[in-house]
Specification:
Helices cover about 45% and strands about 20% of the residues. The longest helix has about 35 residues, at about 270-305. It has two domains: about 25-130, Glutaredoxin (3-Layer(aba) Sandwich); about 135-245, Glutaredoxin (3-Layer(aba) Sandwich). The chain has eleven helices and eleven strands. The strands form two sheets. The protein has a six-stranded mixed sheet with strand order 6-8-7-9-10-11, with helices on one face. Strands 1-3-2-4-5 form a five-stranded mixed sheet. By secondary structure, it is an alpha/beta fold. α3 (about 55-70) crosses α5. This is Thioredoxin domain-containing protein. Keywords: Membrane, Signal, Transmembrane, Transmembrane helix.
Length: about 300
């Protein structure tokens, strides 16, 4: 009995020793990953994981291609860890439709490989592009400057994801994959909804995640719940023509923001507050703005008079 119980311990010791030696010698191996060890595994700079369900011919073929990647010794991924995880649940978590599948983690951000089959050559090219962050980060300060969405989008077309922490993981992984394939012809970006409420209000975002395609001063909402690379590529290339086009709303001015604020306060206030506080404030602000307009007009008229005499 003692000998029988000792074998698992001995095998584990040999396995640990081998991994330690391989690590010290710079040798890379395909590690076995479990759901419990997944979090610690992807904490490295880059990680590539083969997700599978059953050990069958497809699994062995995918594993063989992955081993070819290791032998290729890709210099741009010298720090990459390779692993395999038997779990359909984790495949669903990242929007994987068919397994076995490859998921690449760039600083914990998942990107699903979208090739028809797992081929070492194509995966190598895909990884070279995937290691570089292609998704831009937009916010209320840089949105209009970078996209020029309301003025004709001279910076090109934009596919933008609106998301929240803990919401939109599948959409994010898919958008990352789209960015890898289409970053030369399409701008891919993300907007954190909690940090940018003005953009959420401006574009009438009602759900999370939401995706909008900006093209030639118009916007098209991606409504299908299918967050996969093929569907998004088809939407951008042609299917958006079947969706109602909306004019991109212009960036609200300071006066628009002030007006909206006053209206909101009026809705929230009781009758006494409206009569004695808010309404007099509105009248005072209106009078101030009128005086400023008169002052500016008179100043311009004086300038023009001196200029031409």
């Amino acid at each position: 009995m003692a000998t029988y119980l000792g074998w698992p311990t001995l095998l584990l010791a040999f396995s640990t020793l081998f991994r330690t030696i391989a690590s010290r010698e710079g040798l890379r191996i395909i590690e076995d990953v479990t759901p419990n060890s997944m979090h610690s595994f992807i904490t490295s700079q880059h990680s590539l994981i083969l997700i599978y369900d059953e050990i069958n011919a497809e699994y062995h073929s995918a594993l063989f291609e992955m081993q070819k990647l290791l032998k290729a010794d890709l210099t741009f991924l010298e720090d990459c860890r390779y692993g395999k995880l038997q779990s359909q649940t984790f495949g669903d978590k990242y929007g994987v439709k068919v397994i076995p599948a490859l998921v690449f983690f760039r600083q914990k951000s998942p990107i699903v490989y979208d090739g028809n089959t797992i081929d070492a050559g194509d995966v190598a090219e895909w990884l070279e592009a995937a290691q570089k962050e292609a998704m831009k980060v937009l916010n209320e300060n840089n949105f209009e400057h970078l996209t020029q969405a309301s003025t004709g989008a001279t910076t090109g077309d934009w596919l933008v994801l609106f998301y929240k922490p803990g919401c939109g993981l599948i959409a994010m992984a898919t958008m990352e994959a789209v960015a890898v394939r289409m970053h030369h012809t399409l701008n891919i970006a993300k907007i954190q909804m909690n940090s940018n409420p003005k953009l959420v209000e401006r574009f009438k975002i009602k759900k999370c995640p939401s995706i909008i395609y900006f093209r030639h001063g118009k916007l098209f909402r991606y409504d299908p719940e299918q967050f996969d690379v093929k569907s998004m590529k088809v939407f951008v290339e042609s299917w958006h023509r079947n969706v109602k086009a909306e004019i991109v709303p212009i960036e609200p001015s300071a006066f628009d923001i002030l007006t909206d604020y006053i209206v909101q306060k009026l809705k929230e206030s009781d009758h006494h507050t409206k009569v004695y506080i808010i309404l007099p404030t509105i009248l005072l602000l209106t009078l101030t703005m009128l005086l400023l307009c008169v002052f500016c007009c008179r100043k311009q008229a004086t300038y023009d008079k001196h200029k031409f005499h």
